[in-house]
Design brief:
Length: about 250
């Protein structure tokens, strides 16, 4: 739909010669693109919200893309053009979840107690998933069982960045040994978290075991940090987690 100058109240009528009117035309075109992109994003969010609701209502991801389009109140063709196939929709939901986790604040200051801070960051991530099992269990089961060379690597990279950022926060308070990097920590914890999330999604471990697995992994990884004053606390965390992980 074309946009005229009268449709854009922020734009004053140009007081310039006609031959220089290209500047105004360019601004109008930019405005039109902005409006169209905003409308597209709103429709994408409708698709994602409809998918989220369908998963919660049914406890599965067995709906078709045509069903999803009906719930989003748009045509199947439009929904596909906006966001792609089912895998893209579901992975986008998982990406959105990581964004939400990354925005959750920790109650612990990394400068005052870096060890407690990183352990709490693990708790926050686990709590986010276990607080909504009707949504995250079927979503994770489906996505972890699908071969996807585009969306899955991007999801794993985003998760790794989350843990790497947490490592950067505590590294400022207590520097890493030269042989380790924040990327090492991010890769190790993200890989372990993905595995524990898969176990929880398939109901092979309980909620308590999920928490324990992540504290166990973080504590073992932090031992390599080589801070002597941390060792007693880390060994206590590992022992406590071990009891829960291996409980009947």
């Amino acid at each position: 739909m074309a946009v005229s100058a009268t449709d854009w109240p922020q734009l004053e009528q140009p007081r310039i010669p006609a031959r220089a009117g290209g500047t105004v035309q360019c601004k109008l075109m930019e405005y039109g693109v902005t409006v169209r992109e905003r409308a597209k994003e709103e429709r994408r969010q409708r698709i994602l919200n409809a998918a989220e609701n369908l998963i919660r209502e049914s406890g599965s991801v067995s709906f078709s893309m045509r069903e999803l389009a009906v719930h989003a109140e748009m045509s199947h063709f439009t929904s596909y053009n906006l966001i792609g196939g089912k895998g893209a929709v579901l992975y986008t939901l998982l990406h959105r979840s990581i964004d939400r986790i990354m925005s959750l604040p920790s109650s612990v200051d990394p400068q005052s107690d870096p060890l407690q801070y990183i352990l709490k960051m693990g708790d926050i991530a686990v709590r986010f998933f276990v607080s909504d099992p009707m949504f995250f269990r079927p979503l994770t089961r489906y996505l972890f069982g699908v071969l996807d060379h585009e969306h899955r690597p991007a999801y794993m990279k985003k998760g790794e960045q989350h843990w790497r950022t947490a490592a950067v926060a505590i590294e400022a308070a207590t520097p890493l040994p030269a042989v380790l990097t924040e990327a090492d920590f991010g890769t190790a914890i993200n890989t372990y978290f993905a595995g524990a999330l898969g176990l929880w999604a398939h109901e092979e471990i309980t909620e308590a075991m999920f928490f324990a697995h992540i504290r166990h992994a973080i504590s073992i990884t932090l031992l390599a940090w080589g801070k002597p004053e941390w060792q007693p606390r880390l060994m206590a965390e590992i022992a406590a987690a071990r009891v829960i992980i291996h409980s009947p």
